[in-house]
């Protein structure tokens, strides 16, 4: 089966990991800081904290945002369930707002309508790698004294109005799952524009430990002393995986270029296929596409999905609207809340897209899809 996404690991990546395995640090060592510094360079110089997954990054970001039980978090439903689940697990009330019909990103007008005096966080999701409308969303959160979070699991390497993802929101989260643009096998990161939020994130990902005597309540216990002032978790990304991440970030420009090349070829060769809508791109956005999401019209998505998979082409659907999951259904969320997102879901299909996809394999995807639809 041709996968819809796939990691790209070279001998240089393997050598970087092997070097750490032969060294003195498997975790909490110099590779962690080196990875965070290199990631910061891609995030417009904003400092970051690495964590064990994109889900952990969201959890840490909500903690850094000061989310408390009863606070509301406005977000779109076209996302993986972790965006909402991590807010709920902290006691937040998830409020779903509808999406733009062409990008599937959070619609600022819908977000504004969903906000109340209890709104603490607005979370945008850069669906498929296309940044959300951050200028409009920042106006909303600024007026409401809310925190703007960017779920940028899909959009590392993307730009919005010539500004890199990582500089657009108060807190930005990345994922380094194998299908993402850069991988650490499992891993994630949180970028913060506010040093206090960054410090909160760094502390929470390390059990909440306070090691600086100047910040301790009982600093005279001895050199071994450490304290926990508020509880955290072990979300530390180890040096072994950070070494892979450093090597991968060294190829991000290459990954970005290859993905853009494949996207342009899809755009050109699928432009006239009937019953198909291609992904939109705003003129002021330069996306690093994680997904190539087409929309199959006329109620044929299920048919096309089944026939493409039968032909050995691993198309995918991203995503079921988050509140359709039984866990949210059991909390009282009901279908019909976000009709634009629900319609988008019924048509959406992700075509294979990754740096290792050859033009020959891409042509096979295009030919099979065209044959089915014509």
Give the topology, please.
Blueprint: H1 11-21, H2 30-42, E1 48-51, H3 54-64, E2 72-75, H4 82-89, E3 93-96, H5 108-114, E4 119-125, H6 134-144, E5 147-151, E6 159-160, E7 163-164, E8 171-175, E9 188-192, H7 195-204, E10 209-210, E11 227-228, H8 239-249, H9 252-270, E12 276-277, E13 285-286, E14 292-296, H10 301-310, H11 326-329, H12 339-347, E15 348-351, H13 359-373
Parallel strand pairs: 2-3, 2-4, 4-5, 5-8
Antiparallel strand pairs: 1-9, 6-7, 6-13, 8-9, 10-11, 12-14, 14-15
Helix pairs in contact: 1-8, 2-8, 3-4, 3-7, 9-13
Describe the model:
The chain is of the alpha/beta class. The two termini are 23 Å apart. It has helices at residues 11-21, 30-42, 54-64, 82-89, 108-114, 134-144, 195-204, 239-249, 252-270, 301-310, 326-329, 339-347, 359-373; strands spanning 48-51, 72-75, 93-96, 119-125, 147-151, 159-160, 163-164, 171-175, 188-192, 209-210, 227-228, 276-277, 285-286, 292-296, 348-351. The model has no long low-confidence stretch (mean pLDDT 98). It is built from 13 helices and 15 strands. The chain has a 7-stranded mixed beta sheet, sandwiched between helices. Strands 7-6-13 form a 3-stranded antiparallel beta sheet, with no helix packed on it. It folds into 2 domains: 11-249, Type I PLP-dependent aspartate aminotransferase-like (Major domain) (Aspartate Aminotransferase, domain 2); 252-373, Aspartate Aminotransferase, domain 1, CATH 3.90.1150. Strand 6 and strand 7 form a beta hairpin.
